[in-house]
Amino acid sequence: MLCPFCKSQDSKVLESRYATDKASIRRRRECDACKKRFTTYEKIEFFPVTVVKRSGIKEKFSRKKLLKSIKLASKKCNISIDIKEKFVNSLEISFFANSQKEITSEFLGYKVLEFLKTHNNIAYIRYYSTFQGLKTASELINEINLLNSSN
Q1: Which pTM was predicted?
Q2: Measured between alpha carbons, how far is 82 from 69 in angstroms, rounded to an integer?
Q3: How far is CA 63 from CA 57, 89, 129, 130, 133, in A?
């Protein structure tokens, strides 16, 4: 592991434990050369998952891109980043557990909608309007009415 301070490649692990997400390991290290301490995280590397978009284009699943869209929809909606990251972790784990190597963007979008619906209705509506490509206010009002009637 490369020391972030002196760039030495020699360090020793002082402590290892699960990170708060339980999907990665946090390691506290000490550089053998400069004796400074730093923290690293090890994460399980899942097999690559391909997302098939509505247009038929395929692209590699991006955890970062999914989190960004969830953050955008839930901006100022009081859903903690930990909850969002746990959701994305659970999705990745389910892909691995079910040996899913290819998923549709529609499947992914509906999973995000389920998550947002249970955490914040405003975030749900924001994501829904983009995901479904709503064009008119009446379409949005219909979905809000459906959401209100289900609560």
Answers
A1: 0.71
A2: 15
A3: 18, 9, 21, 19, 22
Kindly list the distances between the CA atom of residue 82 and the CA atoms of 12, 48, 92, 143, in Å, as whole numbers in the listed order: 29, 23, 15, 28
Residue 3 is encoded by which pair of tokens? 């020391």
Tokens of 132: 């479904």
Distance linking the first and last C-alpha atoms of the chain: 51
Which residue ranges make up each domain of the chain? 11-43, 50-150
Amino acid making up residue 1: M
What local confidence, expressed as pLDDT, does residue 110 receive?
A: 96
Q: Which two tokens stand for residue 95?
A: 């892909």
d(CA 40, CA 108) in angstroms, rounded, equals 30
Q: What is the pLDDT of residues 26-59, one digit of tens each?
A: 899 999 999 999 999 887 766 789 999 999 999 9
CA distance 143 to 128: 9
3-state secondary structure of 90: helix
